[in-house]
Design brief:
There is one protein chain. The protein has one domain: Cytochrome p450 (Orthogonal Bundle). Helices cover about 50% and strands about 10% of the residues. The protein is built from 20 helices and 10 strands. The chain binds protoporphyrin IX containing FE. The site of protoporphyrin IX containing FE has 27 residues, from helix 6, helix 15 and helix 19.
Length: about 400
Amino acid sequence: MTTETQTESEESFGDGLFGGDDAGDPYERYEALRRDTPVTRMGESFWAVSKYEDVVAILRDSDTFSSIVGAKAISGEEPASGMIFNDPPMHTRLRGLIQKAFTPRVVEEQRPAVQAYCDELVDKMLAEEETDLVASLAYPLPVMVIANMLGVADGDMATFKRWSDVIIQNIGPSLLMGDDSGVASTRVEFDAYFSKRLDLLREKPDGSLLSELVHVETEEGRLTQEELLMFCVLLLVAGNETTTGLIINAMRAFSEFPAVMTEVRDDLDLIPAAVEEALRYYAPFQATIRRASKDLELRGQKIAKDDRILVLLASANRDEDVFEDPKEFRLDRGNNKHVAFGFGIHSCVGAPLARMEGGIVLRTLLPRIRSVTLLDTDAGEMLLPGGPSSLRVRFEPA
Ligand code: HEM
């Protein structure tokens, strides 16, 4: 329910813009925004920015455009916590710790495990004529990979999915309005599960990423329990749902551009270019958010201190001033400068892992199929954070 102090756009965290029940194609709305009102007022203290140039300028300038956007942090009720919605120096410290887990070498070490999970899921998936792409591959693969890295591969993946869905669906109210009612009971379950794991790891380290984080010593001492739980949420939720989105979106693009899919099947060296173009074409994380740390002006619009800005990554990726034929899915973009992983100090730390997972999916699947057809296509739901809860597809075997 929208209260008097909440604007519609705050409540839905941009649902009306990039998805939701009444959504058509959000990319048509982005195109209109870029053309007519690149800096758009969406509510009393809420803006949306749609041009590539502005998106990059905002993400580059973390002093002016703060990531501390949570209602409770802005009001001073609570200190900003976590990494993604935080600024230096706290962000720098947390990022320095987590980044070690995602260096190209560490990620490369995951390759055999990712390939094994993928083989198993694809074998099972292709045994059926029609399948739910989300349930059979796009959700389980990323969650298995991250659970394996965290050392909780013996956990219940269906429960992780339920937690993940609730947290991501409530991110708008929870973060922007400080209303945790939709997510409170899930967080209790989540925190109880991971607190127990963390206690076990304190006594008995097991070499997993979580174990390393429990024992890491920084200049300020060890990570607090709250910081550790935040890492678990971030990795299990943000990293999963977006990689699920990448797998869905790549298949969606191939269903719409079958000739491109054939080209990639015939030359698997084109897979990295196809992954980048899938990220550009349908960004899994359509938008991020920043807060103006002072009064400022952008394209003639007066943005007040503490106004929040929806930074439309998906729109920037289709900006006709930057990408030739932006509505075409092309493998020859060379330096594909998409911002699907963000830009600047918060740019995605999990990008090497996501790229590897996307590449392994295509390398495993493409030689075994001739085409893919989406059987239910709700374009709106497809692009909401977390993507559709199910997606029936038919693969024509090779
Ligand atoms: C295709 C998949 C993915 C996409 C599209 C994606 C997208 C993004 C974007 C756009 C940001 C920046 C947010 C901002 O600036 O406010 C981000 C940050 C982040 N991502 Fe990803 N992500 C993906 C996969 C992953 C994976 C697999 C992980 C880890 C397992 C991960 C972990 C993170 C973390 C920890 C941050 C916060 C970085 C920071 O605040 O410095 N992501 N991601």
